[in-house]
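Meet the record:
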Amino acid sequence: MILPAVALMVAFYVVPTAQAVRMSFSDWGGIGEITFDGLGNYVDVLTGSQLYESLWITIVFASFSAFGRVAIATLLAAAISHGVRGSKFYRIIWFIPAVAPSAAVAVYWSTAFQPGVGTFNAVLGLFGLDDRTAFLADPATALFPIIFVDIWVGVGFAFLLILGSMEQVPVSVYEAARIDGASRVRQFFSMTLPLIRPVLVVVTILQLVWAFNNFTIVWGMTQGGPGSATTTLPVLVYREAFVEGDYGTATTVAVLSGIVLMVVGFFAMRFNQSEQK
């Protein structure tokens, strides 16, 4: 009965992963025979500076994006769970960005952040602020618009998961708290958050993984620029493979990225399990 599932896992996960690991020990430009290179790719990548620079950019991007999504989604879910006016409408409107094509979102927001003519700068102008700032052209600020857009796109999915967990909390728990005189804020921090913490941990891990692997938004808005200011690890892999034609180095970076994600996920899940005991 499980043979079809196992076959699919082998075909779409095990075989590609094994091929990527094999490629990381090889030298290949996309055409011709694959030449075994031993640990050469790993030595070059680990002794260079590009990997560590991209890893730091990816960590900053993924951390701000994931925790921003979860924090905003939790507040939105709490408002809906407590019956804010228009909650049925908000359930739909907050999820709309999640179903928009990522490429279209990247194109729109890259235009919105253009100086003078972009929507974002126009809003700044309405408040008397500088509307000529080229956010995406400045290495010091280019990453922050991408984080904002990634949160805007992904908060809807996290919102639905967290809202579902909040609505599973028994009403009697809140009724008892109200009888004891607990305010809405006290109920949220002392009851709601502890009761949904396992879901929050899982959602946060998922958001970290998705943000860590995000390529479309970053590439669509800046292509990793200006310079290497927004070159996350997925963008670095793409550049090495399809721009530089160095598939060996690209798969090496991809394998190392996967190891980092597995380590982070392992410790996060272990922490969650230990807290539940």
